[in-house]
Automatic annotation (TrEMBL):
This is Ribosomal protein uS12 methylthiotransferase RimO. It comes from Planktomarina temperata RCA23. It is found in: Cytoplasm. It comes from the Bacteria. Its EC number is 2.8.4.4. One of its GO terms (molecular function) is metal ion binding. The gene is rimO.
Amino acid sequence: MAQNPPHLRPDLAPKARIETPRPGQPTIGMVSLGCPKALVDSERILTRLRAEGYAISPDYAGAEAVIVNTCGFLDSAKAESLEAIGEALHQNGKVIVTGCLGANPEYITGAHPRVLAVTGPHQYEQVLDAVHAAVPPAPDPFVDLLPASGVSLTPRHYSYLKISEGCNHKCKFCIIPDMRGKLVSRPPRAILREAEKLVEAGVRELLVISQDTSAYGIDIKTTAEGDLRPHITDLARELGQLGAWVRLHYVYPYPHVRHLIPLMAEGLILPYLDIPFQHAHPDVLKRMARPAAASKTLDEIAAWRKDCPEITLRSTFIVGYPGETEAEFQTLLDWMDEAQLDRVGCFQYENVAGARSNDLPDHVSEEIKQDRWDRFMEKAQAISEAKLAAKLGQHMEVIVDELDAEGIATCRTKADAPEIDGNLFIDEGTEALAPGDIVTVEVDEAGAYDLWGRIVS
């Protein structure tokens, strides 16, 4: 199907995860593009369809219709989504479109008028209605049984856990609130029930995601469910009791984030924070409509590290934002020297239809964007290389993600989220390992982004 990354391609899900359809069973294919939050939406749609008696096809040929879950955040993502829709139409013919790009149906139907239906993000009922119209259900209550954990599009040993939808921020470069609406938090007990079922089904790592994880619960008016507040600190503490690794993504650096750090120091949740800083110069942050206290952020980072020396900090940045001067970019590089972040991603700014940043003056040329991206990544790589070299000789727990035909195990440390951070490789003594195993290794080699180690227990 579409050439989105294999780890985000339900059409390439392992055959063991997709049952052979029974005679006469209706079948649906799925292509899921974009971020993990979209992947969770795809899982929910497939779980509902599976409960109604549909089989899930891993290829176009075996599907009676195909759902394309789109991404619409950047122009490049929109182009990929349109390409995926076109491929599905060519290969199958019956296509239902959902996801973020579906918030602008005319954009999709203008390029692909043959699609059967277009729905926006997390409009599950409308997707199901479109599937019913295209491929009527034919359930068999005696054989169409849905596992308690639902349909998963990730490996069995880790799962994304979405705790809210939408976002209340008004960043000028972002249209997520326009596509997904304002923050809507899930009830804490519902999240915990889902997490408990996942762990009971064998999940060893829960990846907590939302658009703004640290804002979780501020929209819920009730004070508590029993003794459980709808607050990220309380939720994280409860999740930490389930016996799985708990990793937090998309955490804005609000002051109350410091209350999460003791939970990390205690080992209840992983000592890992994924925080979208975006830039360091106060004027750029103001033009982005982002919090502009970069110096205070350095103080917070120092306090986090004092309370939990093992903490890993990951972030993403934008270079070439409209109006960014060389001096402002240099401030970002200098800030990086001080912050010494462990894991860093960087994007070159690009216009997004509907974003307020499009109208800002003094857009930066593509050549300067590329130059700044190169210099930023050179800085980030040097920091990463030095930090990983300091881990030589250390013992650390790793989780096994996969083993290849040569017996090399691809693993991750507590400092590494799947698909976005580095790996630790083991090339000896892996015969008894299986995905999801957690073992202790001694680090004996380090690169710019990855580690190598040997099993010690």
